[in-house]
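REQUEST FORM: STRUCTURE PREDICTION
Request ID: SP-0412
Submitted by: Lab K.M.
Chain count: 1
Length (residues): 243
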Amino acid sequence: MPAREEPDDNEQATAGRHGMRRFLRDNGISLGFGVAFLLALAGQAMAGWTEFNNQLATDGLAQIGFLGYLASSDFAVDVTENWQSEYLQFFLYIFATVWLLQRGSPESKEMGKVGPESDRDQRMGAHAGPDSPGWAGVGGVRQVLFSRSLGLMMAALFLLSWLAQSIAGVAAYNEQQLRQLQAPISWTQYIASADFWSRSLQNWQSELLAVASMAILSVYLRQRGSPESKPVGTPHTSTGTEG
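STATUS: Completed
RESULT:
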């Protein structure tokens, strides 16, 4: 039996490049938005550091270094207040669109599919296929949890980022209080304060407006090639159809 030839270095390098290109192609959305997130976070950190030091200079206080700013409650609250509003948006959207429909929008289910739908439609229980996730066909608590796992995860991320925002927020608020020679407040006092709810609601309303705008504008407008849009020639009344 002839010996099997081992691939040479050039073949291995070519295979590696093909594998990397395939990985980048298969994960383009998560990688692209992940890189964009890191760039935006870095830009926010630089701008926030500059603004924070300008405020310290105005108050006649010593400025801090960049790493010191990254560890500060001021930076933490600015980041987490945006995160919690984003996860709230997805949590509400995922659960609300089980029951709420928008005629003509690709963001909506078809008009006759209001509610959680049947096991057959969802390929659950006895209707799960051999390629279905394991928990889709097992029944019981595991199936209940898995069938709602996306919304539950978004809810958990919202609550965790909301908690982080409130903790960082009360620390940042109390730092400002001490600079003005005023008494600090407790966490429970802070989450009942106008500062906390102003920070939260100004983000919530913008996220809810964006979702509502996307749902209605996608009825009448198109983006060729995007799964967030209907095909260009699809009638305005076509619901739940993606490009």
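NOTES: Residues 87 and 227 are 21 Å apart (CA to CA).
Reviewed by: T.R.
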